[in-house]
Amino acid sequence: MGNSVGQRAFHKARLEKRQKAEILPMLGHALQLHKMGLLPEAQTAYRQLLQLAPNQFIALHMLGILESDAKNYQQAEILLSRAVAVDPRSADAHMSLGVALNGLRRHDAACASYRKALALRPNHAVTFSNLGNASVALELHEEALHSYDKALALNPDLAEAHNGRGWALCRRRNYDEAIASLNRALSIKPDYAAALANRAIALRELQRFDEALADANRAIALAPDDANGWLARAGVLLQIQQIAQASHDCEQALAIDPSSIQAHMIQGLCLAGLGRVDEALASFDRALDIQPDLQSAISNKIFTLDFAEDATVERHQQARQVWWERVGSKIASESSAPHDNSREPDRRLVLGYVSSDFNAHSAAFIFKPVLEHHDRTQFEIVCYACSSKMDATTSEFKKIADRWRDASQWTDDRLAAEIRADGVDILIDLSGHTRGNRLGVFARKPAPIQVHGWGHGTGTGLPTIDYLFSDPVAIPSAVRHLFAETIVDLPCFVTLAPLPDGIARTPAPAMSNGFVTFGVFNRISKISDEAVDVWSRILERVPGSRLLIKDVALDDQLVRGNLLARFAACRLPAERVDLLGATLRSEHLASFNRVDICLDPFPQNGGVSTWEALQMGVPVVAKLGSSLPSRAAGAILTALGLPDWVADSEEAYVEIAATRAAGIADLDRLRRDLPGRINASAAGNAFSYARGADAAYRAMWKRYCDRGA
């Protein structure tokens, strides 16, 4: 037996010697091809070598790197896992495996590989930088910044670490600091496309759109095969309402990287903005297939469901429950803490308002009169501004607030801590699931009572938010059990600030024109195919009538063409439709003087646009649906004593519009009557409405005090 063992050892040694003689030249040849940049040839050479010697470490490592560079991360992970099994002491192999795992979005595993590499080689700047990248992907921003700082302490000129640090700061909303880091990266590598794309995003968040667009354009020119440049530009274009071009850029990005979460997200927003609701929802679902707990994708889906034809109250609230289960509940479990606010039922209370819309945004026109007319002997007002967009309206809010907090570059943790430190008794969310929301803060419950209302106003799905302001028409009693919040009724779920001084109202234009003009002053995304069909039928019923549509998106020629084509498909020729784009608000309001009757869209109704029309004396036809977004205009009209302008079917909608259009003198009388009617109503009089909110807040507080007694 001993002789047999000896013979096998002898033959094995001879085989290894022969293989070594063959393999070393093959390896040298493969490495030379790799060095010369002949990558397909190098890959072939490495594979041929591995057929002879499957555990040849250098070939496994180098081929794994090539596959990773080609974004073939699955194959790279297989090869590099074999490499670290052959040589577990190789720091380089562990780092390369981390890169492949990060590409596969297995970020926890990538972090583990980077840490193994650092255990073997503690002072390696690139590995620290890569660990930072994986930590950012896990939203561990503090850990990421620590890793980048370690990398830069070792190598201050590592552009990749400056870029990563800039992106981490951007994710933390520290946009000014982010730009400083990205500027440093670009001073080291002026043609660094990734840093340009990241800086474009930071500049966009600071409303510096021209600079952002320039950076994104340069990133695309430098790296047209990198999806990030296209996505950076798409984000800017979307925000400046060049929606069709933004959608095109998303298509370019998806052609490069079909699994890009951000591309599916931005494309979804573009499609929603173009009124292609089902396609938008499908885009958000594709993003959620890749990352099920992506907060922004869930919120965007929730918001877009407001526009869906078949979305019931149940479906709306189920979508909000998904946000809580996948996102909010995890935050709440980590951050719950008791409140030490004094439970005195009649003391002056601190109200904290959280919004990204303390600026010239339509939502601000809804909640501004509430803040303006609070009883200041009973309430102190703290505003937490979560957007870097500042304008004249912002200055007005600053004057209203007792304390103003610029939270635009604060993390959720910091904002929650500041709210506690400010002693806020009742914290009000004014954003819901709209862009720039801070629902993560409300999941942390930094105030003893939390309320949602006015901005969006359709419910959040957060059990940590106690109350939702609404009214009996917007949310009927039969569906209130579906909401996470307790519903508190106001005279109307929304109001609107009085019109600015100097806005003239005119008689009904049909009195002088001799024909009726219908108007639509809503976002294009609200104009459903069903609404287009119904409006076309109305114009068919009313001879000589015209339709005026106004929205900022109509500055885009592609959007204009698409909208007119939709009407043409319903037999309404383009010459009967007038389209208006963006204007100053004074000009926007004056445009109502060209309209006799406004037609409210469905399934998502108007809110601000409905109120503006009525304030200008223009009556509105609305269709009452089943979900809150489809009941908004009906709620407003009912609150003003105009329920006969509210239809419960498409046929009734057509009938109301056509019948009212036949009575031009009656339209003119109502036009003169409406402003006074609004001012005399609890829903439209800003002072009365705010006093209703005051009473609701005090009742909430007394219930809270009673529970603690």
TrEMBL record:
Residues 341-488, 514-680 form the O-GlcNAc transferase C-terminal domain. InterPro entries: Glycosyltr_41/O-GlcNAc_trsf, OGT/SEC/SPY_C, TPR-like_helical_dom_sf, TPR_2, TPR_rpt. One of its GO terms (molecular function) is protein O-acetylglucosaminyltransferase activity. Its EC number is 2.4.1.255. Pathway: Protein modification; protein glycosylation. TPR repeats lie at residues 91-124, 125-158, 159-192, 193-226, 261-294. SUPFAM superfamilies: TPR-like, UDP-Glycosyltransferase/glycogen phosphorylase. Keywords: Glycosyltransferase, Repeat, TPR repeat, Transferase. PANTHER family: PROTEIN O-GLCNAC TRANSFERASE, UDP-N-ACETYLGLUCOSAMINE--PEPTIDE N-ACETYLGLUCOSAMINYLTRANSFERASE SPINDLY-RELATED. Belongs to the glycosyltransferase 41 family. O-GlcNAc transferase subfamily. This is protein O-GlcNAc transferase.
